[in-house]
């Protein structure tokens, strides 16, 4: 018999509550006793099952067939699908609100301690689009790009200092490297080298600060009067154990 319950990974509450299984036995006086021991070590499965892949596939282009289980809009309004359309492997998203907090970002569930996540973006006049690590509309960080400037966000607010470096035009790529809760955001135009914009320590972006039993997820957003085209999402889990 197995007990199913939720728990947080020690030091990584940003990953949200995780489902755990623990084998139990019943004592002679009728009480259950857990036998899992060290839950960081592999245990035998309850029964033989076919091997499966690791998590959800988070890389590739956007298509209506692939999008469903990979990501979800945060706090979508009733007509939220009216602002999104799929075209030739791209997601074209009309801006909503004045910034990330009002934009209903599209978040991806990432269950790894360390990873890289990148996306290609094409901007229309009047649009702001970008890449976040997003817990909820009050607790997020990241970078937003307009055709003539960059914006940096921390703890759900735009920073008073400008994001480092010159603007890169209307076609750009953004990337976040999250290495055990130290998140660095990068930008590039075309085939240019990646340039670091800003770094944040994000271990506090969790339920204890934001409530809601959520997780900290890479997310894309579009705000303002225009629209943005997103394509070529790439997610890579990073091994930092060495």
Strand content: over 45%
**Rough shape?**
elongated
Strand order of the largest sheet: 4-7-16-9-10-11-12
- Helix content, binned percent: under 10%
Number of helical stretches of at least 4 residues: 2
Mean pLDDT level: 87
Largest sheet: 7 strands, antiparallel
List the helices and strands in order. Answer: EEEHEEEEEEEEEEEEHEE
Rg result:
20 Å
Description:
This protein is mainly β and 242 residues long. Helices cover 3% and strands 46% of the residues. It has 2 helices and 17 strands. β10 (139-146) and β11 (149-154) form a beta hairpin. The longest helix has 4 residues, at 64-67. The radius of gyration is 20 Å and the shape is elongated.
Short summary of the structure?
The chain has helices spanning 64-67, 207-210, and strands spanning 2-7, 18-26, 32-34, 71-73, 84-87, 90-94, 106-108, 114-123, 127-136, 139-146, 149-154, 157-158, 171-179, 182-188, 195-201, 217-224, 227-237. It is mainly β and 242 residues long. Strands 4-7-16-9-10-11-12 form a seven-stranded antiparallel sheet, with no helix packed on it. Strands 5-6-17-8-13-14-15 form a seven-stranded antiparallel sheet, with no helix packed on it. It has a three-stranded antiparallel sheet with strand order 1-2-3, with no helix packed on it.
Features:
242 residues; mainly beta; 7-stranded antiparallel sheet
Give me the secondary-structure topology.
Layout: E1 2-7, E2 18-26, E3 32-34, H1 64-67, E4 71-73, E5 84-87, E6 90-94, E7 106-108, E8 114-123, E9 127-136, E10 139-146, E11 149-154, E12 157-158, E13 171-179, E14 182-188, E15 195-201, H2 207-210, E16 217-224, E17 227-237
Antiparallel strand pairs: 1-2, 2-3, 4-7, 5-6, 6-17, 7-16, 8-13, 8-17, 9-10, 9-16, 10-11, 11-12, 13-14, 14-15
